[in-house]
Specification:
Oligomer: single chain
Number of strands: 2
Amino acid sequence: MPRVGVSLVGFVGLMLLSSLPSLAADPTPVPLAEKTYMRYCASCHGKDGTGNGPVARHMKPPPINLTLLSKNNGGQFPYDHVLSVIELRADVPAHGFQDQPVWGDGLSILDQIGPMGAGSENRGKIEALTQYIKSIQQK
């Protein structure tokens, strides 16, 4: 009879462990990343990422179609490049400059002090935003 008790405890333990989020999974839920995209990117790049946002017609050059990044890069999503564009390390004048990004301080990592500094939360937003842009790529 004790074996049944041990097996039951083991089974319950496995069930509890399987209900925990995966450690390898993206810690930022897609809805939050999508909300970040809508707040900081959609006015130019459009809700669908194709470059047709309400501000796009006033921009020269026009915003790029974010859904074609993988296709235009040999089928590989240029994760590091997209990250550098959002962090304003790449030369994209329409995004502004590190000290004056067009989206304000909402994604700034300049104020980061140490591993858990003020910019740490924004670093997470930037990585989640990059993952979101990866998720809208055309197949």
